[in-house]
Amino acid sequence: MNSNLEYSITRIHNSKTKLVMSVSGVGSQSINWLLSIPGASKTLLEATIPYSNESLNRYIGEVPSQYVSKTTALSMAKAAYIQGTQYGNNEMDIIGVSCTGAILTNRKRSGENQAFIGLWGSRLKYVAHLILKKETRSRVEEEELVSTLIVQSIEEKLLGTSEISLELNESESVSIDEMEYSSDLDSLVNGHISSITSAGPDLVGLDKNFEGGILSGSFNPIHRGHIELSKLASDILEAPVAFEMSITNVDKPPLRSEEIKKRVSQFEKSETVILTCAPLFAEKSSIFPNSTFIIGNDTALRLVDPKYYANNVQNMYTSLQKIKDAKCNFLVAGRLQNSEFKTIFDMAIPEAFISMFKAIPESQFRMDLSSTELRNNRTRL
Q1: What is the mean pLDDT of the chain?
Q2: pLDDT tens string 148-188
Q3: How far is residue 230's CA from residue 240's CA, in Å, rounded to a whole number?
Q4: Residue 243: helix, strand or coil by DSSP?
Q5: Does one domain contain both 86 and 190?
Q6: Residue 128 bridge partners (DSSP)
Q7: What is the CATH number of the domain that holds 368?
Q8: Cα–Cα dist 20/29, whole Å
């Protein structure tokens, strides 16, 4: 290892950023280098080498159309980042690092010798594409060049500059494709992250796992019915309950930042609030698998009424099946509708999905409050 490389890795270790790395064989020397310099325990949370196609498929959760590509590098970096978020907190800056490539091998291969290095953070999406000239280096030399580019990319994105220079031949090149978002909300609205979790108004983390009860709503404003329903649901489920608010709506533009902050400020620090861009329960289920959605009977009715799927029964079944496949279900509170108190027993639920719905008896919970009626009263009535 040369002195510039050692200096760069020392700078990386002295930064506050934590790394989770995933390299599909090519670029694995970069992991060894990072571990060989004192301070690696402050930087590297985890490193994985999904070498076989089957291992890589499992790691990214899909079978890519091409294993050596920009898209696959980003999928690997995102999976690494998501893994890192489960270790960290809001004070931990996490970057997922990936590499997928094809370099000199002992079998005949028609494609280019190349590598894609991906970086994924809460506001960052970055890919460096290295094209190598065939038959000019040994496999060891190509591996060292790819690994050097990985370290250089990490250092430049973490610290702005790098002392490392790549020694490329005239026909070789590195191209960069990147996107940086201005804020966590900007990142969420653009689909770069799936959720923002806070304890009341205080940030807890981005893309954090949550399994338990999910009470979704606009909370405009939050009221006593929401609070008491969440507490009862937590007792019934014997699990924590979070308040979830989608900042996008099927028929409306995204909520403005000021409005989001105002609604989140209503919650206490003891209450978990999750922001998403998932207005539909089929979308929410992919973010919160193995969870229970706590809803009112009026919402449950819309879930099983083809009218809300453009009168297409197949669309309704597809949506419900997606929720079922995510191992999610519904805890349903009765609601006053047209002067009558209605429960799920007043609904026609398709037989295949009846087991997904469980009623909260009226004797346990009934509160005829509406956020619409409380728009002009911002207290927690």
Answers
A1: 91
A2: 999 999 999 999 999 898 989 989 999 999 999 999 999 99
A3: 9
A4: strand
A5: no
A6: 117, 176
A7: 3.40.50
A8: 15
